[in-house]
């Protein structure tokens, strides 16, 4: 399963890039990660220092977006959620293939055995 991994950014296979860091949605090789860090550093140097946030503390990803920008991002967030859901289904399928009970799967996901079965059973 892992032999076909490739960097999500440069699209080179792991056999060319060496180790990859993976998340449920993407993988990245060291050269691409280093380039991303350089980009972040360059952008941080060019950006004026942000004003302190309100009493709530940490700014949210959407706090600086206009209403139109926020609405425009909703489909992207929904698509990412769908990808995560599909990935979770793959993991649950792998757990079931190993004979792990619905009760253990449900417990791991903070739901009942019945809820896990209803959500993840094969249709």
Strand order of the largest sheet: 1-2
Structural class, from helix and strand content? mainly alpha
Q: Compute the number of helices.
A: 5
| Alpha carbon gyration radius | 20 Å
DSSP E strands, number: 2
If you average the pLDDT, what whole number results? Answer: 84
The rough form would be described as flat
Give the distance, in angstroms, between the N- and C-terminal Cα atoms. 24 Å
- Return residue spans where pLDDT drops below 50 for at least 5 consecutive residues: 51-55
Helical residue percent band = 40-55%
Main sheet record: 2 strands, antiparallel
| Strand percentage | under 5%
Order of helices and strands: HEEHHHH
